[in-house]
Amino acid sequence: MMFKKLATMMITAAVAVGFAMPSAAAKLDWTFQSSDRPGIFMYQMAEEFSGWVNEMSKGEIKINVAPTGSVVQYNETMEAVGAGILQGEFTDPSYFAGQDLAFGVIGNTVGAWGHPSEALKFMRYGGGMEIFQELYDRYNVHLVGVVVTGVEAFVSKKPLRGVADLKGLKMRAPEGMVQNVFAAAGAAPVNLPGSEVYTSLEKGVIDAADFSLFSVNQKQGMNDVARYPLFPGFHSMPLQVVTLNKDIWNSLTKNQQTILETAVWRLATEVAWQYEMQDLAAVKEARSQGIEVINWPDAERAKFRNIAREQWDKVTGKSPVAKKYIAAVVTYLSSQGLM
């Protein structure tokens, strides 16, 4: 079955010749599929990344960015990278949680992070990258680096000053870890599609929602009907990954590897800072409209993290890598006075 699936993927990749034709100028000509489509900010940043790599390598490395679904399906990219059908990917690792729960836990460690810098420091200096690579080793994939897409804000019609105010709160949260953590904190979460969040808030079906970044919420009018948003967020900050076929990675010179790692680090900081600038501008606008933006004190954030930790522990028994990763997260957060 696996062979047939890979064969089908190869045929699909061959059809997408526009993305994989060798270049006369570049010594290395790769296709990286994104989980986004053209026009989306993260897709544009993937194209920026491609340009940086080409420039730093003096034209030796060319990366063609392919949109989601153009070569393989969004949830097949890791397998395709390992097989060499794609050379790399820009994606959300949570798509592969069916392979190992650790992909979901690492892709969004609910309640862990209050700022992109916290997650990036942990991944780079707290052992996160090394543990994540242990997981990717099974699939012949090398993790070049991670990107943080920003801390999601929390939409609320009621002023929430701390964890105690979550008790009985009717709120929207997606199924899985996010919903489990909020339920453990005393809230009453329900699953609603994103398209129904605004009207559900407006009609009083829910009083709060896990939705998106503050700037997105502000643009979509969420803060007009829910005038007590929490920012910076405390509950959700997804990661995206940049990966490369492991055989290709091992064949590269040290200089080429360093170029890729440097480009990912730039990508991570560019994305985090641009999102943060957009959020802060949106916060200023919201406050000028009389919206009260609430920022939880560190003590309340630590309380929420400890509630989340209990939910993390419930899934780590099903994945040795998840267990090791969460242990490292707890050690890091404790060392930084965040838990």
TrEMBL record:
Keywords: Signal. Residues 1-26 form the signal peptide. CDD domains: PBP2_TRAP_ketoacid_lactate_like. The keyword Signal applies. InterPro entries: DctP_fam, TRAP_DctP_sf. One of its GO terms (biological process) is transmembrane transport. The keyword Signal applies. NCBIfam families: TRAP_S1. This is TRAP-type mannitol/chloroaromatic compound transport system, substrate-binding protein. The lineage of its organism: Bacteria, Pseudomonadati, Thermodesulfobacteriota, Desulfobacteria, Desulfobacterales.
